[in-house]
Amino acid sequence: MFARPSTPGRTLLLPNGKYLLFFGTDTLTDQRTGAMTRYLPNGMLDTSFSFSRAYTFVGAAASATNGKLIIDATRFLYGSETQQILRLNGDGSIDPSFNIPVVAAGFGIVRAIVIQPDGKILIAGFFDTFSGLARQKIVRLLADGTVDSSFTPPQFEGNGIWTRPVVLANGKILIAGDFTSVNGAANLGVARLNVDGSVDSTFQATGFNRDFTPIRGMVVQSDGKIVLAGRFEFGTGSEATSAPAVQTRATPM
Fold this sequence. Notes:
CATH topology of the largest domain: Neuraminidase
Number of strands: 21
Shape: globular
């Protein structure tokens, strides 16, 4: 049980059956914990895991190899905030061998972390710079935490990427959110990037309109079609309909 109002907003199931709770939690009803806690499969608090209380907020997390984690964490110090990407050991301690990138200023601007099959790390969200470099909405890190200079994302208009990027079998990357243009071309909030981060111009989602709210969920089916969750409009003029949690499909080209 969590003390109000600091209740967790996100969970991550780990390969060993344990799970993480984060995104707003800091206190259980009977003890102070921290910005992220881990639980056993039976729901009991895993007391062998302890994340530094110097960090007050964890916005995103992904499971890495050897039981390690990649997380986005915010630390407040003397009235200012620092948002960092950390690698944690299996016990929750910070791995000092990982270069710690500092995300651009802003609270909660990292929305998702995805680890590619080759060990590289995708960070997606609302940022326009990352670790002092011009990187809009998505950046790729090498396994040691340094920014991958071979990956250069396009230019976006809009807040950014809300969903977890999906890495396809060919290495291309699907992204979705509330962006309205990519490299100056109008976009419904769904795009596909090439391996080097450039936009794949052969992919264009059609058949629906999106209102001012973002696309909040995206999965790829076994047949390659893409399921999107959000608020969409179908049709034109007075015949257009809009409903929350609509699912639609866009077929990759």
